[in-house]
Amino acid sequence: MQFPEVIEWPLTQNLAYRIVERLDGFSKLIEDRNRKEIRVTGYLPLADEEFATKKKALCVFDVNAQWVCKIPEVMCLEPWVTRKLPEWHADEYGRLCFEFNLNWERKLPVMVEHYTLGLTADYATKWLLNSTRSLLNRHLFAFRNGINAWPKCWDYWAHGMVDAERQLSENQLVYKFHA
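-> C-alpha cells emitted (179 positions)
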C-alpha cells in the first residue's frame, strides 16, 4: 500500500506520537523529514495484566511513513536483554524480533481499507508495544531467574520464512473456525 507523498510525513507522525504517549517520562524524538522517519527513544513500562512489575525498558522505535506495510524496527538498550538470534529474538545490537513481519503486513492494510488511518494507528501502537512488552518481559524474567535457554513452553513465531508463513496460515485457519 503506497500513500501519496503529501501525507507520508503526517503518517509517520501519526504513529510516532501515539508511541510517545504510551511511554513513561520524557521521550526523545529525532525527526528526519528527508527520509520521512522518526526515531522515538523512551521508557516502555513492562507491567501488564500477566506480569506485575515496576520495571521499564529503554527502547528505540524507528517509525517511517510505510508503517502500515512495514513493521517499525525496535531496539532495547537494557543490559539484561539476551542478545542471541534466533533463540532469544534479539540481535547483538538489541534489535528485537517481536512479531512476524508478514503478519503485520497482511493485517494492517486491510484495517486501513475498512477503518481509518487513525484507528489503524491506535491498533498498531497497541500491537507494537504489547508485542515488544511481551518479549521483554520474558527476557526480564529469564534474567532475574538465571534462565539461559529460551523455554520451549514460551510462544514465539517459528524461525525462518517458510516455517513462519506455515504457522501464520495455520493460525488463520484456527481463527476462522473459532470466529
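The radius of gyration is 17 Å.
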